[in-house]
Fold this protein.
Amino acid sequence: MNETNNSKLTRFSQNLRKNMTKEEKRLWYDFLKDLPTTINRQKVIGKYIVDFYCAAAKTVIEIDGYQHYLDEGEQKDKERDAFLQNLGLTVLRYSNRDIHKNFRGVCEDIYNKISPYINT
């Protein structure tokens, strides 16, 4: 993995882990935390901090708030996704609304995409 050792990002990612959004908390505590593989929260990859990262499946999981649907947010996400995909990573994106309205569907989608890479 082409990860940058950036002490500012590392400190920021540690702060983000302590202050997850309610949607990130729900996904973490009610699903990801108990999977039989390692999932990292607020992982630094290059110049970015991703919400969740599963190294075994080379998969990034992002939970998007409203700012991601504004023009500037969408452009930044395209650049970020291109960078991550260039590293051979798959990016899964779900909205806060998805977490609230279709939590089970989100969990099933994530599990279906990463389960082939989980050694159980």
Observations:
- The chain has five helices and four strands.
- The CA atoms of residues 43 and 50 lie 5 Å apart.
- The chain has a mean pLDDT of 87.
